[in-house]
Amino acid sequence: MRRRAGLVLLALAVFFAALAPLLRWYAFPRLAKIPAGQYQEIVLEAKPAALLDYGTLTAKEVEKVTIVQTLKGNVEESERIERSAGRDVVVWDSLSYVQGPDGKMVSQIPERYIFDAHSQEPVHATGESVDGDAVRREGIEFKWPFLTEKRDYTYFDAQARTSAPIHYKGTRTFRGLEVYYFEQTIPWTKVPYPKKMPIPGVDATTLEKQTGTTRWYTTKRMFWVEPVTGAPVNGEEVHKEELRGGTLLGGREKVTAFAGHVKMRDDYIDYTVELVSSQRRLVLLMTSRLPWGLLTLGGGLLTLALILEARGRRPQGPAPATSTADTEPARTS
C-alpha cells in the first residue's frame, strides 16, 4: 500500500515538474496577446510652447499646446487580415490631434498600425498607413513586446515615416514600478505636411510644390516602459518643427512652427500606471509565479515519494522471542 502511494506521488511530481516549463515556454507565448478591441486615450501637453501663427507667419509663445492621442482596435479589420496572415493580428486606428490654447485644431494625423498580437512585430497588409500614405513599418510603435529586454529596439517614427534605434538607457523606478528607460533622437529631417492644415482653403499636398517652403522636424523621444507587460507608463518628447525657405516665408530662411517639451498629463499617468500594474500581475502569474509554484510542488511530492519508498524498503526487525512456558505442553498428573 505504501509503495503504491509512493508511485502515485512520483507520477504527480513528474507531471507538475513537466507542466511548469510548458506553461512558461509554450502556453504563455500563445496565450499572452493584445486584445483586438482595445481602446485607449492619452492626453499630452506642452506648457509653455512656441506655436506658429499662420496669420502673421511668426512664432508666438502660448500657454500650452494639447495633444490628444487615441488608439482604437479595429476588430473587423483584424479578423479580415488574420484569415490571410494565419496568425493573431491587431489593427490599431490611431489619431494624434493637436490643438492650440484656444482649442482650435493645429494638426491631426491618423495612422493604421497592424501588428502581431503576441510579439508586437509589424504585419504588412493593405491599409498600413500614416496620414493616408501607405507605409511599411519596421520595428515597434506605441508598445514594447511582453518581457521587454535590456537592449535597443527599432522604433517607427510616424513623422519621418522611417524606423531608427531607440536606446535602452537603464532601469529606473517610476511611481513605484521598476521600468526600463528608452531614448530616441530623430535629427532634423524633412517631413511631409499634415493633410489637414489649420489654414482654410490650403491644400497641404500642393503647399510645398507651389511655395517651395518645406517642413522639418526633430525630436528627442523618451519612454518609461514596464518590462513585464511591455507597456509604456510614461512618455515625453522634446519636439521642434520648422518651415524653411520658399516664398511662403517672405524671404526668411526659417520659422519655428512648433517647439515644446511634450509630457503626459498627470491624471493619465496615474490611470496608465494602475492599468499596467493590474496587467503585470496577470503576466507574472503565467511567467513566474505559477511555473515556480508547480516546480516547488513537484519537488515536494518527489521528496514525499522518496520518503515513502525508503520506508517501504526498510528491513523488518527479528521476531520477538517466546517463553518456554508458552511453548511446552501442559503436564498431567
Would you kindly provide a written description of the structure presented here, covering whatever features stand out?
This protein is α+β, with helices and mostly antiparallel strands and 333 residues long. It contains five helices and 13 strands. It has two domains: 63 residues; 233 residues. Strands 1, 2, 3, 4, 5, 6, 7, 8, 9, 10, 11, 12 and 13 form a 13-stranded antiparallel sheet that branches. Strand 8 and strand 9 form a beta hairpin. Helix 1 packs antiparallel against helix 4. It is elongated. The two termini are 51 Å apart.
Please supply descriptive tags for the structure shown above.
333 residues; alpha+beta; 2 domains; 13-stranded antiparallel beta sheet; 5 helices; 13 strands; 30% helix
